[in-house]
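Morning F.,

Quick status update on the modeling queue. The single chain you submitted on Monday has been processed. Sequence for confirmation:
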Amino acid sequence: MAIVRWLMVLAVALLAVWAWWPRLVHSKEVAHAHGAAQLYVCPMHPQIVADQPGKCPICQMDLVRFERKNQPEEVDPDTPKGTQPLQLTLDRVQAIGVRTAVALSQPVSPTLAVTGLVQASETGRSEVHVRAPSFVEKVLVEETGVFVHKGEALALIYSPEIIAMQGEVLAAGQWSDKTARAAVKQRLALYGLTDGEMDALFREGRPRRLLTLRAPQDGVVATRAAVPGGYAMPDVALYTLQDLSTLWLEVAIPQAQLPQLRPGLVAMAQWEGLAQAVPAVLDRVLPQIDAERRTGRVRFLLQSPPKTLLPGAWLQVALPTEPAHDAILVPRDAVIDTGHEQYVFRVADGGWYLPTKVEVGALYGEQLEIRTGLSAGDKVVATGGFLIDAESRVQASVRALSESTTPARGGQP
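Structure tokens below.
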């Protein structure tokens, strides 16, 4: 039984060799002559190469004829990986929709675009307090958000302690002497009486029952604690005023950019609600780094900002990072980025499109800086580059396969 089993295995092996022998002979013949044979390639899958027309087994597209005459004899070793120079006729270029652009040398000023938060300046904040325990007789400014001027009346107060002190001053009669009068005025000023109120006191000869609380500066009423009939103590602010003539703009800057910033640097801040950009002067770099985000906070001063700009708004800030210089600029769509390298297709005489490695710099609107790889005046593909890149890669793949491997026996019929 064992002998019969082995005889059956041998018969099957001989049958397989007999069935595949013609194909093996044909493959050797193709391998010997593939340098002169016509090749066909799939436009979508360049790894599919055949020596006769057919269909791609992956996408079922018709295989297209591969023109060897467009392949240069030698490829520049610095050519981007997987590409090679490509020669196209004028009608082919027009059918693809290729548009070219000239690399131009233009002056640029590199900037860093960041977002900042507008805040009220701490130096423009003030509080209104009573100088002695008092009762609020009347509230003259009853709402927050109201703009008041310096010296404007905010509320009327009644203070038994201040009334008693006025009576003592009048009873002493010392205010007739100039030296004594100055000392008395100084004492009354400590209780918050103005020069006008003191002159009225001396002129009338009787204590003033109600005193006026006035705004110490121009600003917006941020908080109000004064209510009619309320009892006020010196440690409680009845009003808080905020001056908005100067605002702060705090911006988070990447840690690597902080050493380039110096106080006095002028940047331009923009917001969709502003008709024009607002100058922002760098005041200080705050001594603190966010460990998680690896950013530092920078404070700018917005002097005389427009009235429409209020605390809490976000502004786009363009920070200059390098001195102004001349740079080679091309349209951003002209650069093909594979993640490992960047290159453009440079247009040469004779309809040749040469893949050229470049080193890119900053982006200026729709123009991209080219640091190395191009010179001013070079013509590059601006639109349609991805189609030329695909064709270049197809031809490079076919060339590599035709030089190192045997093409498949046709596609699917």
